[in-house]
Amino acid sequence: MTQQVQIPGTDLSIFPINLGTNTFGWTADEAGAHAVLDAFLGAGGNFLDTAESYPAWVPGNTGRESETIIGTWLAARGNRDKVVIATKVGDHPDHRTQDPEYIRTAIDASLERLQTDHVDIYYAHRDDEVTPIAEVARVFHEIVRAGKARYVAVSNYSKDRLAEWLAVAEQENLAKPVAIQPHYSLVKRHDYEAELQPLAQEHGLGVFTYFSLAAGFLTGKYRTEADLEGASRGGMVKGYFSSEGLEAVDELVAVADAHSVAPTTVALAWLLTKDVTAPIVSARTPDQLDALMAAPELELTHDEVTRLDQASAPFA
After folding, report:
1. What is the residue-averaged pLDDT of the chain?
2. Catalytic residue status for 54
3. Most buried of 144, 162, 252, 307 (most Cβ within 10 A)?
4. Does residue 249 register a pLDDT over 80?
5. pLDDT tens digits for 285-301?
6. pTM of the prediction?
7. Nearest Cα to 253, choosing from 262, 244, 245, 241?
8. Are 191 and 217 in contact (CB under 8 A)?
9. pLDDT in tens, 91-145
């Protein structure tokens, strides 16, 4: 059984796969999402990632479906103490700012939807690059002091704005961000490795990567543009199609075949060799979890990691 890992700077222990729930209310309805959550917990998982904006991009949605579905599951199962929950504020189509007044109301609304009195991690979802960092840092600290969130974290912030938040937290003795959520995968390496990784290592931050499987491109099932037809994420996957991208997938598939595992498993295992605390992955159905949950157990050889590094070098 895979050992749990501790999120740096916290007392939170997690299975090193973070279940992204942006599919809830999109490609998974409430019953389907509850089945995925049951299976995830049954397989040893315990860390859920959501946001007030998931999935607002679906026509007819309000963007608060994911939190609501998790809330009905928690209420039905009575298992709040068995899961670590992270949610986010500041990327909803109706409210993309990090305005402190809004954040104060947003946390309460998220807690109501989630049917809990606190979240374990509360993220600033996306920087508006306008609100002074000190103001944002102070309101997040206020939320921690009120017991509504145990820890704070940051997603989609530039290196400079993140560094400023860390500095302000130090100077004013505020709740310090414990984690970041960067866009990082075999075919999206440069921004994280060049900008955020050194900062994360310097400050001992947890790292939870999104688009860890490049919207499904790294599952190996999209090898030609024709494979995208009718796929719910076809538009997202198309952005990864290039000769270099397909070469990286070929190498991924070769390593997976050598281990008799899915390419998905190898793509996540590679991330875990890069000091990623827990990659974020989503599942539409319970059977998709098997390949995801197998990643922490897969030990890639030094040679295999080097081969994958070289195959994905154009993206580094």
Report:
1. 95
2. yes
3. 252
4. yes
5. 999 999 999 999 999 99
6. 0.95
7. 262
8. no
9. 888 888 899 999 999 999 999 999 999 999 999 999 999 999 999 999 999 999 9
Output the six-digit token pair for 60: 């007819």
Q: What is the token pair recorded at 278?
A: 């827990």
